[in-house]
Specification:
The chain is an alpha+beta fold. It contains eleven helices and ten strands. The protein has two domains: about 280 residues, no CATH class; about 80 residues, no CATH class.
Length: about 425
Amino acid sequence: MKKQQRCRDGYCRMQQTFPATVILVFSLFCSASCHDNTMPSLHLNSMLTCRLVGGLTREQRAVCHEAPDAAAIAFEGLDLAVRECQHQFRWHRWNCSSLLGKSSNPHASGIMKRGFRETAFLYALASAGVAHAVARACAQGRLLSCGCDLLGYRTSHDTKGKVRPNKWEWSGCSHNLAFGLAFSHRFLDAREAADDLQSKINVHNNQAGRAILASHMEVRCKCHGLSGSCQVRTCWRATPDFRVVASTIKRRYRNALIVAQEELNNGLSVLRGRPRGRRRSKARPASKTSLLFLEKSPSFCDADPRADSPGTSGRVCRTGRASRAGACATLCCGRGHALLRRSSLKPCNCTFHWCCRVDCDRCRDDKLNPGHVGPRLPRRRLRDAVLLPRPRAAAPLESQAMQLHVSLVLSGGL
């Protein structure tokens, strides 16, 4: 009986401790899963932060454990870069939609392991995003390892244009760009430990993104004085809006250079490249802000897991001239598209009654919205899909409820 009693007591003890264990495990699981593939926040401890983010190398995890607060800010910078990538490429065949599908780290994506022109854009944008986020976090007091930029801001000319090299005009908290650039170099360039061609290109594109960010630093000032006069000014250096940096990197993407492999065999330390489509032109040294890529990009029309391309099927395109961004002629890849008519009820024929009432009718507003990329259609059906009747004029309706319906206008249907 004693043995059975001990077993029963042990079982009772297990019942008492088991719910506490379940609650602990559930809280950890919820804190990890409730983010829904978003970047870890600062309240997570260093071990959990570094373990949640996939695609990190051993060197990056070491940096993450040494500086968990700065690493958490770096993950926010990566998230900022991904969202900005989706904006910049929203009308391209490849629109960055797959970067947050598997992991919150864009470097875990398959396209980051290739040498495409889009890969060069991503490396530069991610590097600039990390430096941008860390530099701002230093000035905001979110990091213990850094603060405001100690150099501050120094003016070299007065209001009349006279040089005054020894006069300081500042007292604002400048964004610590130097620390942001240094941590971006330490955290992202640690991935490229190998001494191969692709690693050299990735490091160059990382440096290009940081150089573009540094070239767009702004000086912001605030005036102090009576009646709004500017007798005393407080100035500081600040990182620009990240969209400005991303737009500049997008322009560098359009003029990216393909690496001349025959030049690399000579053991040169400076990478050389030539513009796209000019194979016979002489390779020139790549500047600090130019992007480099190694292989030609695919069409991104069809789904390709190796290139991390979901394809363009189901995307919304824009009707009009073919040169327009997001034009159906470009996004559809010759497969045709279906025009959608969207009808909505809007107030019309409004009358004002004194006082104070406005009575309106409900009128139907028909619009032809951008086309929807569909499967490949025969030529005859494509012609029928383009020849659509004009929308009907607005007509009053008796119903007062707003309705929205979408009708697929295509001869024979899809």
